Amino acid sequence: MCGIVGVIGVPNAPEVLLAGLAKxxxxxxxxxxxxxxxxxxxxxxxxxxGRISALEAAVDASVxxxxxxGHTRWATNGRPTLANAHPHVSADxxxxxxxxxxxxxxxALQAQYLQGVTLASDTDTEVVVQLIAVFAQTxxxxxxxxxxxxxxxxxxxxxxxxxxxxxSTLFVAKNQSPLLIGVGTGFNVVASDALAMLxxxxxxxxxxxxxxxxxxxxTVRIEALDxxxxxxxxxxxxxxxxxxxxxxxxxxxxxxxxxxxxxxxRLLARYTADGQVQLPAAVLQALQAAxxxxxxxxxxxxxxxxxxxxxxxQLAGVPTEVHLASEFAYHQQLMAAKPLLIFLTQSxxxxxLRQVLLKAKAEGWPTLTLTNVASSTLAREADAALSLAAxxxxxxxxxxxxxxxxxxxxxxxxxxxxxxxxxxxxxxxxAHQLSLAASGQAQLIDQAPRLHEAAQHLFTGxxxxxxxxxxxxxxxxxxxxxxLKEISYIQAEGFAAGELKxxxxxxxxxxTPVIAFITDPxxxxxxxxxxxEVAARxxxxxxxxxxxxAEPGDQLRxxxxxxxxxxxLTVIPAQLLAYxxxxxxxxxxxxxxxxxxSVTVE
Length: 602
Ligand code: F6R
Fold this sequence. Notes:
alpha/beta; Glutamine Phosphoribosylpyrophosphate, subunit 1, domain 1; Rossmann fold; 3 domains; eight-stranded antiparallel β-sheet; 27 strands; globular; binds fructose -6-phosphate
């Protein structure tokens, strides 16, 4: 979603801002812009619809500055047009503003305060910058005008504001949307994600909601909205667990897909020793204290959570529910007496989850976040957090975070089961199973050329596809369908194989692609029958079976693994099929249309 960068006190602000925006590209956007000021009377506003490369091309050598703000916009209010691209400027051309979030009372504020102002865009952001200008025109200082606007605004925001009359200062504020201050020597920066500014500094201060920051080249002043000063030291942010460079891969998705065996081994090194699970004491205590676990997530992370439920129930004997964060936040559940909410999130910034976290805090429910970004909002604000250790995931389509989430849930389930003396946990060796999964994943990744052929055969000209399976195979079907649709735009559904005949089989016609996962011994025969039923109606069926259950004619064999962890293998061909479907259609695999990597609006 929208990305913000800001800088003050450098000789080459356009360069720093463009490099920062390029690092935020992964979040998803449809237009980009920057404002720079050379603090010597010259300033420049440049915006473009489309890619950052278009913005880069428009920022010629004449565009110079020592401070400025930049933005990638993912359209919420208003179409992706030049007028709606940020930065937005007040009618008197004094204030320039970039914004991430959604202001829910923009229309009311406009009606009340901006009667005489003609808006140039359809955005809620422009309402805010005009509001600041109107307040400043009454004699308030820039900071006081900004504060007054912040006091009236409802909704989510990360703001970075420039007052053209005083370009020695940047004003920053946030509520619900992520924003960090990066502290340099003789300069300071602002970014939605530390990744954007790691080339400049590794010292970052995370902001809390409703804080206002005044930034100069050499000072960072944080205060609460009522003016109370806040003292917070910067923390060192390091890129560990892998890098964010593409290297020799054509797309990040392929790179990240290939990293999955390494991610599994890294998790084993981090959370097990001598084959035994080692968890931080606070995490184990929180798990043991709970009489019911609630896994809360969205999208692919939700699909990983679905695989986690049977792991906790079988290995640890603890009832576990899995919830979509966007539903859980607003619909009251009948909660257990001692719940533990476990947030599963690659980015750690998903607004739907943050809303549940706020609710959990209000209710006094304990919380644990499993995330890939240690400095993220959900990591900081939960009672405890564990790293997914997957390394930066840049492609919008999540791959290695799914693997890391399933594996870490298995580790937690076994750790809890052993601590509770559960016989099933004692009989299970998660370390062994995960190392088998790592080598199994590597074997399957080596089969990429075969899966490319299969994708061509199945999906050329296809407009819809079905993935079917039972038990955990069904759970992987849901993830497989999401992966295919989000990057190839083929309408895809994951189905409990037994349910097809209750309605959906009506959609099967000549050449409809159906991918059947067959790894569950209890139901393999039934799933095979369901695959035969759709084949009899003309479907093109690809059967993917575990070695122990494979039969002649199955197109792909998966190495054997304990059934509860089989999704770690089944998901690999699913990811590869989606990747090749997108590639062959000529799409930008890493940046599918309409999608964002870090979903910071509800
Ligand atoms: C799909 C995908 C999304 C995310 C979802 C949650 O490939 O990546 O469905 O899984 O937006 O994001 P996180 O895990 O960052 O909370």
